[in-house]
């Protein structure tokens, strides 16, 4: 169970209420109750003892010959006298054989001989990445089938023909489909969250309907044009260029460990550009990334690696598993695979689950999926009759936002006897929902920016991160709403609608979405999914627009009673390549003003975790009631307090008035400290060790009480538990991060501890301000000190507090990071917020802060602007008209009576003249024939600090 940040992190969030002891006791018992309830789950079958064998297996010939790094998992029951069926287990993109170790051991524990391997170009295998090219990666599968056929502990259906299933996720899922198409020795497959067409996946165009499909998530394929999914493609290419071993999902989910930076000296620049990719794959990506255009050459590379063209060859029974939280390979990809394979008369089962590339499945859902795969193989590799056969299951729809809905959606599933519309079966049921709205202009901005924000590959959907909130840019979208629903509608699949569109140039790029609008106007974008539209052949006349059929994203979502459905069509989305030329299109509903939504009736079935969920829900309800009671009691006590609010509080975010902190042993840490900070200032708090800086900050944050005096924040008295502390963000005395969690999980957990809505966290803004990057989703234990520091600063910025307090924020940062942090703090203050920085790096305070308070021995020595404090000394800055005179000027100034060392800077020469006056120094320079542009007082903050502290 996740735990809240330790006390060293200063802020179980400022402003948090004290918790009654009874409530604390119940909070302590919650993990115990959770463990007990988890322990009540039905026990799985006893796993067999499993041994492993590592081997290097040669595959291919000539220049394409490689060595595959393999591990074979053998159950104790598999012997020459009692051979077992086998499973080839392929890994996801960017991963290796170690990525599937847990799945391999699970299957081996069920009695299968399992062979896992690192695909060429990944892990310790040699070769280059061909994107599941039939000539290379698929041929490697045939090599591994030969290896299994030679083992006496594997069942053989015929000489050279092992009884074998193939399974894998994402990259490995497509490989299982292609292997079944190209090698008829494959007896069953279980591909997960994978693609049907890479062309459609990376250049989607949903400006059509799939005529006569009848399946729930039928999504049109891409013909000649599509909208380039640039962010996902970039992440895909980046993970493949420098494989981490944890795979794409590992990179997104915070798994894995940090690797040492490779030595790149002397390496061919082409290798740095293309990494481990084959040259034709690399060229296709570079062309797409540069132009955003689908060319025949790019399509040829993507189609070659797509199961779409060879589904008619697959006769192996197929279990298709796809995630509902997946903007990379949506439900439509599995739908297309199901239609193509079922057309051969092949057994097909379709399973949708709560998770995907945008959101990892819960532990309970993962266990259920392992049971699904094992059951499928039991049925077709063992002839046991215990498998699930065909059919369809999906998460029970809920009207919750995607973030919370993932948890609920994993607890119950809906089962239907067949996947609607397969192989001549009854088509999916559809309901027509009326939507209304007039003709609306939609602007495409110059350069395609600013763009709507819905999907952030590698970080999940913003909809999930912000509890269902997305960012739509006014003027860039048209919206069409239904009336409030009088009955709940469960959408299971892809809805369709018809639009009327015109554009001056005859073409337009747009993005269609289906929003859930609550009675209060709040909006949720299910799954954070969008449908890109590459529109061509449009009318230029708004009075005679072109009718366009649109297939919206395939989702599983309940639209509750009183909610409305909103079809929104926008001109931008930051995850895709966009036109750079400004244009205004016209969008309206076509004559048929209905939204056609798919519904799949079925039987709701609770999983093993559902009972535990309801018990846990009861415990949480009880805790909620106790928390409410505690809040009421505390609120009443606070209501009795007399609060004096200063009239200028909003202009003076912080004020110390005669503050003293003395301890019982007589030590006085802070004495009679008074200063104030104005809105928009960046204040540096300076002082040697023991000056009282940290004590002052701890009093400011309400962690300790002053002995005398008053501290006010925005005019309100600050103290332990003061509500005004909710406007303060802080980072003092260590990061307090949990090393076993990712940086993102730490931020989410910290904000959850405040009890405030997730939407108020402004999580993505804080992450962007702190410049955290993709490493945010790796575990904290793998972070450098600088990365930990930045996560802690992002934590302090959550909620975008009006007053930000940072103690030594640049500790552990290298010079470029310190420079970036300086800009972050200055930009933050320019928004009207206030920043207080305590640091021993005087040069950074000088360059970062607008104002300074200098302390020594618990007392304030001086307060003022940086310029005021620096300008009070004997140093001068000398600017020369001719740089050629620099050496002579240095010699002359250094030779003046009592002058100090002359320092050369980018601004000019800096020297302490000592007893020599500035006029005399200027006269000496002019008489020597040295032209002077300026001669102004100058000394560094370090000089002023040392002088002031020394005087104190």
UniProtKB/TrEMBL annotation:
A GO term for molecular function: dipeptidyl-peptidase activity
Sequence ranges assigned to domain ABC transporter in this UniProt record: 654-882
Keywords assigned by UniProt, alphabetized: ATP-binding, Hydrolase, Membrane, Nucleotide-binding, Transmembrane, Transmembrane helix, Transport
Xref: SMART domains: AAA (SM00382), PepX_C (SM00939)
Any one Pfam family match given in the protein's UniProt record, by short name: Peptidase_S15
InterPro entries: AAA+_ATPase, AB_hydrolase_fold, ABC_transporter-like_ATP-bd, ABC_transporter-like_CS, Galactose-bd-like_sf, P-loop_NTPase, Xaa-Pro-like_dom, Xaa-Pro_dipept_C
Keyword Transmembrane helix: yes
PROSITE patterns: ABC_TRANSPORTER_1, ABC_TRANSPORTER_2
Assigned protein family: Belongs to the ABC transporter superfamily.
Keyword Zinc annotated: no
Chain segments annotated as transmembrane: 613-634
The protein's name in its UniProt record: Alpha/beta fold hydrolase
